[in-house]
Write a structure and sequence with these properties.
With about 290 residues, the protein is α+β, with helices and mostly antiparallel strands.
Length: about 290
């Protein structure tokens, strides 16, 4: 797992590992290797023995980092073998309830009004938060400025304190502040309205073509034999069909995405291309 214990990705990994242990009749141990924006775990799996015993919980940060970093010590599509997506989830665009904009259209109009230059919270250059916000900049023609913080909880606190104007945040991180009314949901980033927030419009309703879905999935070392990939893929389909797994994923703001290896490769490749476009369009310096 590329992030610390207790993070949403870690919770999903532990739910999945518990069910896989039952189906495979052997322990599936979760090991957290956080650091370098998730690349520490990615490099570790890319360099492991290709026997299917070392798995990666791949997150939406993977294609973002693949697009952002000038030099990688591994090929993101050849040195890692996709197995299955687990869940998909959008970001939610949030602002303070007293903000002078109550919708995406009002936010865009306010930003273009020129009275003040808006800023947004980011979890670092090349993060999905950052690139989603910059896609919004590119498609609207506004020029909101990133302010970097560590983690979603800090970003929301800074929003509430008035030090940032809006945030594209994950549903799990924003859920508490949304439920008690401390922040307002302006929109979700998915192409269609999201089941967890059915009354919240999509960004694309005001900005056609805007569509950002992040994901969690399972991958392993590149060049792992096909029969092993197929066996693990079969096990993932079994796990994702379980009613309690589907419900627990929904509680985290996501929806099960039972998508196999070939389709997962397409998802990752498409997102790499999307973030490469954003980086080029916004003149973001690759690291």
């Amino acid at each position: 797992v590329p992030f610390a214990p207790g993070a949403g990705s870690d919770i999903v990994a532990r739910i999945t590992a518990e069910k896989m242990s039952e189906g495979l009749s052997q322990p599936v141990v979760v090991e957290n290797k956080s650091g370098a924006g998730g690349m520490l775990a990615n490099r570790y799996v890319a360099g492991a023995v290709p026997d299917g015993y070392t798995l990666l919980l791949m997150t939406g940060a993977y294609p973002a980092q693949a697009a952002m970093l000038k030099e990688l010590s591994f090929d993101p599509m050849k040195d890692v073998s996709m197995i299955s997506l687990l869940m998909e989830y959008p970001f939610v665009l949030i602002a303070r309830p007293d903000a002078p904009y109550k919708s995406v259209k009002e936010l865009i109009a306010y930003a273009k009004g020129g009275a003040v230059r808006l800023n947004y919270a980011s979890s670092g250059a090349g993060s999905v938060h950052h690139l989603t916000s910059e896609l919004f900049n590119a498609m609207t023609g506004i020029d909101a400025v990133p302010i970097t913080y560590r983690g979603g909880s800090v970003q929301i606190l800074e929003l509430l304190a008035g030090r940032v104007d809006f945030v594209f945040e994950t549903l799990p991180s924003a859920a508490s502040a949304l439920s008690d009314g401390r922040v307002r949901a302006l929109a979700v980033t998915s192409g269609q309205r999201w089941p967890a927030l059915p009354e919240v419009p999509t960004v694309s309703e005001a900005l056609p073509g805007f569509d950002v879905i992040s994901f969690l999935g399972i991958a392993t070392t590149g060049r792992t034999p096909t029969f092993i990939i197929d066996r693990l893929g079969t096990e993932m389909r079994r796990v994702l069909a379980l009613a309690d797994v589907r419900e627990r994923f929904r509680q985290l703001g996501g929806e099960v995405a039972s998508i196999g290896a070939t389709e997962m490769e397409t998802v990752v490749e498409d997102q790499i291309r999307k973030w490469q476009y954003v980086i080029a369009a916004r003149g973001i310096e690759r690291q």
